[in-house]
Amino acid sequence: MKKSEALMTTPTEQNVKTTNVKDVLAYLADKFPACFSLTGEAKPLKIGIFQDLAERLQTDESVSKTQLRQALRVYTSSWRYLEATKEGIARVDLDGVDGDLIDASQAEHASKTLEQSKAKAAEKRKARIAEAKAKQVNTVADKPAYKKNQNKKPIPASKEAKVNQKPARAEPVAAKPVTLQPVVMSAVVAGAKVLIKLGQNPMPATVLEVNKDDVTVQLGSGMVIKTRQDSLYLA
User: Which domains does the chain have, with CATH numbers?
Assistant: First the structure.
């Protein structure tokens, strides 16, 4: 197999061992395609699916139970999954076999959770924009204004020479632009230290959660925001 072909293959038991949640979900979608999916409309999962996974993968050392719990939590809290959790839709097991139907209370809970999640995302986006604008305002340097006195009498040569002896005002040196290097997707895991560019200045942040292409990070100030993986850079 060529190197380029190897990079395009889906996760296998050999390379999932130390990967992040995104790779574990890709592994589950590859191993149980009738149950898990990464794109399109999601299928509501059978209640107790974790026990089924633990039993099916009990001899699989490439993924741990902790990774499975975290992956299921991320999968079932995604907007795509919550939108698919509607009344009357059948839940599926690992083999895609229909089971219990979603009742009204379960559908209502999923709808409220989706609404709250989108509201939080909107608030974080608004706070991020406000913070970026505030930083841009603070970086604008105030330039001193000089008044020209056109009606003053000519200064005698001796006094003019003394005036010219004053040291010249040093011009501020422009800061060199910082070159940022994008973070490799496989390095974006919970707890990873990264830089996120808000406004003109990159800020250090810690990755809290990875959900598909969306990443939740915490700034040094304690503020938690959601951004895209392509907005993160090496710390």
Answer: 10-102 (1.10.1710.10), 119-136+180-234 (2.30.30.140)
